[in-house]
Amino acid sequence: QVQLVESGGGSVQAGGSLRLSCAASGYRYGSDALGWFRQAPGKERDRVAAIVTGSEITAYVDSVKGRFTISQDNTKNTVYLQMNSLKPEDTAMYYCAWGPRISSLWNRGEAANWGQGTQVTVSS
User: Fold this and answer.
1) Spans in the chain with pLDDT lower than 70
2) Which of 16, 18, 109, 111 is most buried, judging by how many CB atoms fall within 10 Å of its CB?
């Protein structure tokens, strides 16, 4: 059973930065995908970024390209989401997600497991 624990959310002003962490366990390094999704109040959960563990394969939604970076530290079994130049529209609950295939995780949002979420609030 893959377990995911997020941390690092908080409140910042527009233009600021935050780094989210997702401590993961039980996944298959080198094949499974880990990703970040977000859900704003009254909206559906949307993809943000994803990475194939043990590789350089990443994916980003257009709205965060150039501002957010997903990375991994295999020694700590942790995936990070570095968020720079934050905007008020980035305000949402951010969820870490795991899936055995990045295609299904990214293209269809089919996560086999979700973290509990961490709140990010960006004020103007």
Assistant:
1) none
2) 111
